[in-house]
Design goal:
This protein has 198 residues and is mostly helical. It is built from 8 helices and no strands. Helix 2 crosses helix 4, helix 3 packs antiparallel against helix 4 and helix 4 runs antiparallel to helix 5.
């Protein structure tokens, strides 16, 4: 939700980062790789017992994940860049789930359900994006959800920093993911009905 409705607030900072990387002749795909590696590094830091460093690294990864798209639009967007971006996002999210499971095996059930719900949410998001006609600047239709990448990072951060509340946070994350899945499916169903597609 924040990615869709609050992006304009932070976009100037993202634009500035994109211009800096452009001045060093770095491509958007290179930034995507750096963002993904930092995201994986965040999970490793958490497993090693450095939750604060892990959270900081995760958010730097998230910032660069926003910068790569802006940089691509400033230079030359590509389908390959879209594929890398979506794939690497899942690599980072998967890493964070694995790290949380490794450190907190006692919260196995809600964390594994979070992983399953993330997979279904992303599937619903991508199918929706593939079906609904794209009129935005991204590579495919971006359907807003209750939970988007920023909210996921927020939940990961809270679960890492406040282990005493991890169990409750993981269940809340799961419930909000379910609501997001329902929203994506409802949105694409309504679009199909309004556009007379079977």
């Amino acid at each position: 939700m924040l990615d869709s409705y609050a992006r304009h607030t932070v976009q100037p900072v993202i634009d500035k980062g994109a211009k800096i990387f452009q001045s060093f002749s770095l491509s958007a795909n290179t930034i995507s790789w750096i963002a993904m590696l930092l995201g994986v590094g965040s999970g490793i830091l958490f497993i090693l017992g450095f939750p604060i460093a892990s959270v900081l690294t995760l958010w730097i990864s998230g910032y660069l994940d926003a910068v790569d798209g802006t940089l691509a639009r400033m230079t030359k967007p590509s389908k390959w860049g879209n594929i890398l971006d979506v794939t690497f996002d899942r690599v980072v999210e998967g890493t964070m789930i694995i790290a949380l499971l490794f450190v907190h095996p006692d919260a196995y059930l809600p964390i594994v359900l979070d992983l399953a719900a993330i997979l279904i949410t992303v599937t619903a998001f991508l199918v929706t994006g593939n079906v609904i006609t794209n009129i935005g600047e991204k590579g495919f239709h971006y359907n807003p959800g209750i939970l988007e990448r920023t909210e996921a990072f927020l939940f990961f951060s809270l679960m890492m920093l406040f282990p005493g509340a991890l169990y409750e946070l993981a269940w809340l994350f799961f419930v909000l993911l379910l609501i997001t899945i329902i929203k994506h499916l409802r949105d694409v169903y309504v679009w199909l009905q309004n556009n007379y597609v079977d």
